[in-house]
Amino acid sequence: MRLPVVVAASVLAAACYKTEKPVVKACGAPGFFGSAPSEGSFTILPSRVPGIEITNASWRTRGGSDEFVNIENLWLSTTVHAERRVPQEEIAVVYDAPGPNAIVDEILLEEGVDQYNLGLSKPFLEAGGSKTVGTVLQLRAAYWIGRTSALTYCPRTVQIVPRNALALALAPELETPRGQAARLRSIGAISPLTVIMDSVFQKEPSDGFVAGAALNTTDSTLRDMAVGLVVSLDTIAPSLYEGGPRQADTLEYYVGDVAPHALAPFGGAHVQGTERIISRVSYHPADVRRRIASNAEINRASNVFPKPADPAPEDTGCTYKANTVSCPKVATP
Prior knowledge:
Layout: H1 3-15, E1 39-41, E2 43-44, E3 52-65, E4 70-82, E5 91-95, E6 103-105, E7 109-110, E8 130-142, E9 157-162, H2 166-170, H3 177-185, E10 193-204, E11 207-216, E12 222-232, E13 248-258, E14 263-272, E15 276-283, E16 319-321, E17 324-326
Parallel strand pairs: 2-9
Antiparallel strand pairs: 1-3, 3-4, 4-8, 5-6, 5-9, 7-8, 10-11, 11-14, 12-13, 12-15, 16-17
């Protein structure tokens, strides 16, 4: 009579089994499964930002569990050293770029620290300082985590890049005439300043970081320019937004003067899980009239947009804070 109980207990134990260090087969020597590692070091590429460099970087896969299921995470850890004062929001760390496995860490949370200053009141690093930052991605959640990792590629490279020029690290073909021409051919409407790339990089379904680039398609310098990415808003919970649900919001990036046929990369801000970019526009910030400040500002990453050096004109209706320009209605080129 006890046999079914014993069998059920055996099945339950098997279901809850987990490997603490799943190995990544893509990193193993061909034909030798046992040599596949569960951790390793990155090849450090030259920094794209003067005065700051990576001194060490590593990755590891680890199995664990929460209250209900077993999980496997990919942990990425990078130590950076600065020869000068580095402001918040200046840099990002990019893993395995360019390519389909690129991971962007723009938040740069210090390992072993419980409280963070994510504003601009304190620099990311002082001259001579070092900091180890880390990020974690969940690879899978299951009742059973076996010996082989869910990671299907071998982590290879890491690099420091300017946060507002992430597009060039993620899509280097944008810097070539051939790559620019290919992008323009895929775009229906060409404007003097045309957005030829915008991407949302998500480490989790509820949040994504935006990076892109615009191209001056004329033979003249475009003065005092801004790029706007119009996103549809999440209206599932309209009570979260003052005044009820709205259909569109604009992420605005000030790119300044753009030389003839030059590229203007931009980056910053986060979009929520159900939002999507629906149109792209470019304009002079002073040309925008009577635009209402974003009611969803609490759901935006603060202090991430470049802004003009001069104060905003009184009649624009935009909200200008430190490095933040909030103008939610659709702009007219």
